[in-house]
Amino acid sequence: MRTDIDSASASTASFTICWPLRDSLHSAGSRPAGAQDEASSARAVREMFDSIAPRYDLLNHVLSCNVDRIWWWRTARRFRHILTRPEARVLDICCGTGDMTLALLRRRSGQGVPVIAADFSPAMLERARKKLPARQTTVIEADALHLPIESASLDLITTAFGFRNLANYQDGLAEFFRALAPGGEVGILDFSEPGGVMGKLYAFYFRRILPAIGSRLSGQGDAYAYLPQSVANFPSPPAMLDLMRQAGFTQVSWTPYSFGIAGLWRGNKPA
Predict the structure, then answer these.
(1) 5 or 182: whose pLDDT is higher?
(2) Cβ atoms of 121 and 114 closer than 8 Å
(3) I need a labelling partner for 111 at 20 to 30 A (CA). Which of 23, 141, 214, 227 fits?
(4) Phi–psi pair at 146, nearest 5 degrees
């Protein structure tokens, strides 16, 4: 499936692609078990990722059968028109251990402005620093909802499998919009829940098999129980496009990857 869905078609897309009609039940953002508000949600997510950081890369590749590498590569390719400009200012937020950042760097000139790789988990950043070339990246600890970035200063913001974990999706989009320069672009790579037969097979794997394997290999059962829960609570592609449009983004679109298991949301800040 390669068809892009834009904001104009979003109202009917959920029926043609059979996304679950569940958006009215969504909270404003991620809510791990036991979290009562945005502050406790953010704290729980940070502690969770700190705890799984030592085996995070191994588990990602094993549980996705290495398909995650293809998703990062395709996302970076979508923004090559920005990445090949040496003066372009790029932020990879919720960078984790740096795999999305590395995919961006492969499309980047070695003489370009360093890419900023940011995350609010110190343990994840510790591993990112070991992977990322120091001359081509600036690694910082930062919260996606409170970026230490000047307004209208970035040409591109990307985030891979991190936006879903934000305590407030609307605030996250507003913060991205603030930091982007006029004409700048955002790319949000994250999971979705496809419908149909593929959706049923995926749901069985994602809710039953993946948490069991992840718990056994990592010793962190709560983290891998949270993963399918966070995807189930995340806005469907059409609803996410609506949120992006409300934040001020134009030319918003969603490109499904691997039959809609994951996908890339894109938007532009008007010039």
Answers:
(1) 182
(2) no
(3) 141
(4) -145, 70
